[in-house]
Amino acid sequence: MRTYEFWADKAAGLSIRNQAFIGGQYVDALSGKTFSSINPATAESLVQVAECDGADVDLAVKVARDAFEDGRWSNMHPAQRGKRLMRLGDLIMEHREELALLESLDMGKPVSDAMAIDIPGCARAIHWYGEAADKLMDEIAPTDPSALAMVTREALGVIGIVVPWNFPLMMACWKIGPALAAGNSIVLKPAEQSPLSILRLAELASEAGIPDGVLNVLPGFGETAGQALGLHMDVDMIAFTGSTQVGKLFMQYSGQSNLKRVSLECGGKSPHIITQDCPDLDKAAAAAASAIFFNQGEVCTAGSRLLVDRAIKDEFMEKLSRASASHVVGDPLHPDTTMGALVEEGHMKRVLGYIDTAKAEGATLTLGGTRTEGRAGYFVDPTIFDDVTPDMTIAREEIFGPVLSVLTFDGEEEAIRIANDTIYGLAAAVWCRDISQAHRMARALRAGTVWVNCWDPTGDMTVPFGGFKQSGFGRDKSLHALEKYTDLKTTWIQL
Questions:
Q1: 3-state secondary structure of 95
Q2: Long-range contacts of range 168-171, CB-CB < 8 Å, 24 or more positions apart?
Q3: What are the CA-CA distances from residue 12 to residues 112, 119, 374 (Å)?
Q4: For domain 271-458, is the CATH number 3.40.1620.10?
Q5: How far apart are CA 230 and CA 233, in angstroms?
Q6: At how many degrees (to 10) do helices 313-324 and 281-293 cross?
Q7: Residue 26, exposed/middle/buried by CB under 10 A (0-12, 13-18, 19+)?
Q8: Distance, CA of 225 to CA of 221 (rounded, Å)
Q9: Per-domain boundaries in the chain
């Protein structure tokens, strides 16, 4: 295990890329403007980062379009594209300490989580789509023998990618992998809170042999660079992960511009259902705590609504209390830390505001509920509210922090009704022993993913990920992700 001293020494000597990456080179924003990237664990500035805007978007899109049209990547043999993606995956693992440290310093997550989960997950995604690049087959339609009808899948062109700050590199790799495997060029805008790891990834992509101009990274703000990307007439698609509010803006931008395709993975208010028939209450309690406190609760699939059958409520809450005690708030560089800092001061205040609202609306605070004492950064203690009703604000709105709402139900029918009473539909989980009940409830839950007797077993790239309702549409991961970065062409040949 790497020690705190190891990470502190490595941080002191870290070289940080802080310019935009366009056409295979690091460049300043055309305006010369910069913004400060803050370490949320210390509230201190890490580095000044290039602040890109519409002019930089125009330049990067032109570079990406030129790269697509001249075929340096789009017309490359798929096996060669796959080989270079495989090399990029290897480079991610070779530089995993550096990338994990950038993730931790930039957005506050424990570096141990970044090392064990985030960076290997990034490499796995890139490797997976590298392996898939030359295994996508076209079709021959079953026409009359007098004709030959070919159905081919072609890259869309220039893809705008906008990713969030909670898993900066992983969300980027989930989109970069299939977009590049299909032959597209990319202009990527990271969240302004966490651009550093993605800026380094761009350099590694160049080292892996991905041609100049194919992957471009523009740090900047949503209302300038993000909006310009969404409205750009020469961007063929926007792939977005973030809030539902911003996702709706990208749909508007599409309609106001060139009807570019939009894929959205947005917010969630995921129900975590513990039935009377739960096969292992200790395991379920540990999962329930992890589902809300992992990554400081800054997870789109966070199990923020815990639904517990009244018949086992008291016993389960005792086990949940013990399980929650293992989640330790501390310095993200310390190996014993399991919860780091929230990403920025404004977000911390927003989370604390939800806690105040929950108290005012009558929920019972059983754990935490305060800013962590003795730390300069943006830390909030693990927080649990009991006696939450479905109409309370904390049961309806996405908090995106370590705040758990516990709701009680009587029987399967009421559990489903409460679980589905939300504008979101990203994920859900059910703990029960009876296989028939598991199937019934999984079918009834309106969510893109339903876990049974577990919570979010991460790492498998073979299944699609995305939501129902206002959690968005389109899928990341699996071969299905390639569908949104490509289009179908029919070529009919009369014989």
A1: coil
A2: 168/103, 168/106, 168/107, 168/194, 168/195, 168/197, 168/198, 169/99, 169/103, 169/118, 169/119, 169/122, 169/197, 169/198, 169/201, 170/118, 170/121, 170/122, 170/125, 171/241
A3: 18, 21, 23
A4: no
A5: 9
A6: 50
A7: middle
A8: 6
A9: 9-266, 271-458
Q: % helix / strand / coil in the chain, to the nearest 5?
A: 40, 20, 40
C-alpha distances in angstroms, 132 versus 7, 172, 184?
Answer: 35, 18, 15
Give backbone dihedrals phi and psi of 469, rounded to 5 degrees, phi first: 50, -135
For the chain, the residue count is 495
Assigned CATH for 9-266: 3.40.605.10
The answer, yes or no, to whether residue 180 has pLDDT greater than 90, is: yes
pLDDT classification of 446: cutoffs 50, 70, 90:
very high
* Rg, the chain, Cα only: 23
| Separation between Cα atoms, residue 244 and residue 398, nearest integer Å | 10
Which residue in the block uniquely carries the two structure tokens 């013990």? 322
Residue 208's identity, in one-letter code, is: A
pLDDT tier, 1 (very low <50, low <70, confident <90, very high otherwise): confident
Q: Are 230 and 440 in contact (CB under 8 A)?
A: no
- Residues with a catalytic annotation lie at 265, 300
Tokens of 169: 């590199």
Place of tokens 């839950």: 445
Amino acid at 454: C
Residue 134 has pLDDT above 80, yes or no: yes
Six-digit token string for 403: 């705040």
Tell me the pLDDT tens digit for each residue of 364-390: 999 999 999 989 999 999 999 999 999
Closest CA to 218 of 87, 46, 63: 63
Strand-pair category, 185-189 with 158-162: parallel
- Tell me whether residue 149 is exposed, middle or buried, using C-beta atoms within 10 angstroms of its C-beta: 0 to 12, 13 to 18, 19 or more: middle
